[in-house]
Amino acid sequence: MSDRDDFREEIEFHVDMRAELNRAGGVSEDQARESARRQFGNATLIQEDMRRMHVNTFLESLLQDLRYATRGFARQPLFTLTAVFAAALGIGSTSAVFSVVDRILFRSLPYAHDDRLGSLGMIAPLDTNEFLFADAYFDWRKHQTPFTSVTSFTAGVADCDLTQTNPLRLGCAQVEGNFLSTFGVSPVLGRDFTAQEDVPNGPRVALMNYGLWQSRFARDPNIPGKTVLIDGQPVTIVGVLPPNFEMPTLAHADLLFPEALDEARERAGRALRVFARLKPDVTLAQAQAAMQPLFEASLQYVPPQFRKEVHLRMRSLRDRQVQDARTASWVLLGAVGAVLLIACANIANLLLARATSRRKELAVRAALGAGRGRLIRQTLTETLLLGTMGGVAGCALAWALLRMFVSLAPEGIPRLDQAALDPRVLLFTLAGSIASGLLFGIAPAIQNPQAESLTGSRTAGTRRMLLREWLCAGQIAISLVLLVLAGMLLRSLWKIQSVPMGLETEHVITAEFVLSRLGYSEDARQHQFLNELEARLAKIPGVGSFAISDSLPPSGGTRGRLLASMQVEGQPPFDKGTGGLIMWRYVTPGYFSALGIPIVRGRAFTENDRAPGASSMMLSQTFAQRLFPNGDAVGKRIKTVEWATIVGVAADVRNLGPLQPAEPEYYILRRHVPDEISHIQEPPTGWRQAKVAIRTSVNANVMAGWIKREFAALDPALPVTIGSMQRRVGRLVDRPRFNALLLTLFAGMGVLLAAVGLYGVMAFLVAQRTAEIGVRMALGATPAAITKLVLSRAAGWTLAGVLAGLAGSIFATRALQSMLFGVEARDPSTYLVVLPVLLLIALTAAWIPTLRAARVDPMNALRHE
Amino acid sequence: MVELQGTLVLLILKTLAHGPNHGFGIALHIQAASDGLLRVEEGSLYPALHRLERDKLVSAEWKVTDNKRRARYYKLTPAGRKWLAKAEDNWDSMAKGVGRVLRFA
Asked: How many domains would you assign to chain A?
């Protein structure tokens, strides 16, 4: 910049003239120049000021501040690295968690005015979600007042097959004609269903999911009006759904068919999921109150025994989707927020330490005329730059963490597959960086440079030291809360995992399949397939025992029967309500040995029990005790559909997971031919849906290959999912494990940051007190006494932090209670483990710098002053 | 800032009202004209000159002095002249006011 030369020349001219004047006064050449220079003052600084007069647009001075800041950071790489690391840890983990919970808690759902949408229906013990039988739905739809629109779809997305070249298994849902319009969704191509299409025996039409259109039909723009074969039937595609379309239950559906409810004939009751759009100004609570009379009226459709157990439920669509993920989401968000807070406190501490060592520099600049505002701005620029660097590094960390979450996450976290570092999350990260930059920058920035800093006295920093100690105590407090929460979740996980499930999961391979509707609509055909499968599986080498069942634990049977509808020989009919739904399974004789379920009384099923005319059943222990509290169940007879003799009692299996007590269940033997029961139990899939469990000592991958080959020989087009029993059971604790893992990770980060912070403050304290320590040692203090002196101070704030942390934990654990199993929020044993760990870490971090204090050489220390 | 910096600006502009001058000349003039009572700090003078230049109250150009040296000469602009006239009025009334207050008692 030529300006710079101009400034220099202008100043040189001035100095030369002054020197000439001095010479004229009779001073020697050298002296004249020297005094002229002295009189001029700091030429560089003045030059800088002159330049600033010309460049004072905001952007340019910002660039200048940034230049100073980067130069300063480059000079102190260790400081910069620590601060950026802390900021990245805080911002990165917060962003990663935010990207997940944002989808759950905050982000709007892909429907127009999604906050006006709700789910309503009856809630009964059968199902954790509200549903409505079609007959009640007709009344509600006709007489409701709080909604602008009510719509429904038939509960459950059924398997269906695209039966063209390259058959494909799809998910098909049946929706009411006004389904899309109620949700405010329009097809991207083609049109919505018309009223003429949503009628009984209407035309076979469907709306196609965007993903299917893209992957299978190569985005064919002419697809509306084309015909595809579904389960062998021609279906006309009328439109394509938008890419972000999702079913309100988050179930995956490739095709939507008209529900075609038949008001005249549907009275028998299809179970529907019902959704509604609230009128403007109507709240959920008001809507629920308005629906209450309709609900009570429709209790007439509910079997009398059930009525007491059924309630009306109306909730927002978000609550319907999020289910129980809400608490965990808030806990995780709170935990990363705490980590971010610790990181901020940490960086504030580092900056304060740096500010202390820069006190002289700042005081000199202030004395030379730098305005207070200018200095504050400079400091804030530095911290914002630090925050931004942390933000960038944090983004990288967030990306890695998010990938880790997705790979470790259990099923059932709503919308986890959509979580990504998209602009919204990046915006959040940016805001987080700036906010944390301001948060940790504010303390050092408002420190007013004081004139006494110039004297080199060390008293000026005392107040600041106190602030730093408080920041340390705060970090310890927050870390303790995090540790306690993580500890509780870990103990809870431990308890969950040590609950016996009632079966032996090792060395059991599972295979699941659903026979296509087209080829296996007949009972006889299904049984033929299963018989052949049984014969083939029995011949595979290395198969110890195996079972074919309609369902496998853990998870209740897919079939249930009200206790009240059963008859026990020699006992009066059950008349106290429904007695609840008793789940049952169809099994083959090898079921109990394949799954390692012990037989507690009697015997397991044998092949002989399958002979024509024989009729036997088995009960679970809980069920046997419930029916025969005082006697042996074996040999007794029970009528479900037909009379059967109890041949044995099997130990309980925790089908609903370790968190729930074992539910009663019973077992019916699958025979080789269709029987009376299978006729009655036809829908929805009958024997088309089956599961195989195989106990084997052969390597799982090898066995999986053999099993697949047998299936392929029977039906080459049948998709088979191979899994392991261990995985099935393990999945039940995935959610608690995931939560515990994340919280432990964040607690670890928090403790690490707090330890680094504590170490930094102690190191600084020791450096600052070197002279004092030197004097003490010169006066006869032993190294041990010095260690004690320094450490006692650290112990003071650690204790203050621990006390605050304990108080915080009591509040925080209360929020956690619903996520705990077998652990009381007030349980002291978690604290007994966590406290010593934290104290040990804190005191170690504090102790390392004291080593240096104890080694201070008095002579050096005193000379240093 | 109006007070102290305003005063320096007033002194500079008034000096330049007598004709273009370089920084050293301005400093010398203020010192001489005030009988040595006022001494301008170089650290304030040069930034002030450049600010006046930026605000277009003075203009500057490099010229060769009598003893053959290049120096930066500052000259009042019409805007500077107007500003000076107004500031002189203000100064007079302020000086009178301050004088009265000081003499009171």
From this structure: 5
Q: Residue A826 sits in which domain range? A: 461-499+731-865
List, for residues A570-590, the tens digit of each pLDDT value.
887 776 666 677 888 888 999
Q: Which of A17, A41, A51 sits opposite B43 (nearest CB)?
A: A41
Hey, is A501 helix, strand or coil?
coil
Chain B residues inside the 8 Å CB shell of A16? 69
pLDDT in tens for each of the 105 residues of chain B?
Answer: 233 346 788 889 999 999 999 999 998 898 888 888 888 888 888 888 888 888 888 999 998 888 888 899 999 999 899 988 888 888 888 778 878 888 875
Whether residue A45 and residue B43 make contact (CB cut-off 8 A), yes or no, is yes
Among all residues of chain A, which has the CA nearest to that of B65? A13
HEC letters along A630-661: CCCCCCCEEECCCEEEEEEEECCCCCCCCCCC
Domain limit, last residue, from A54, A71, A94: A54
Among B42, B43, B51, the residue with its CB nearest the CB of A53 is: B51
pLDDT tens-digit map of A745-796: 989 988 888 888 888 878 877 777 777 888 888 888 888 888 888 888 888 8
Task: Say yes or no: A635 and A646 in one domain.
Answer: yes
Domains assigned to chain B: 2-95 (1.10.10.10)
Task: Return the structure tokens found at B6.
Answer: 């305003």
Of A41, A45, A53, the CB nearest to B50: A53
Q: Is the dihedral of CA A666, A671, A674, A676 positive or negative?
A: negative
| Same structural domain, A175 and A66 | no
The verdict on A491 and A577 lying in the same domain is: no
From B91's Cα to the closest Cα of chain A, the distance in A is 25
Do residues A290 and A394 share a domain? no
Coil/strand/helix, residue A153: strand
Q: Which residues have C-beta within 8 Å of that of residue A776, sequence separation ≥ 6? A: A785, A786, A789
Q: How many residues can be counted in chain B?
A: 105
A90 and A239, same domain (yes or no): no
Subunit contact B71:A13, Cβ cutoff 8 A: yes
Report residue A684 as tokens: 């929805």
Q: Which residue in the set A9, A18, A50 is minimally distant from B46, CB to CB?
A: A50
B18 touches chain A (CB under 8 A): no
Q: Rounded to a whole number, what is the distance in Å from the CA of A327 to chain B's nearest CA?
A: 58
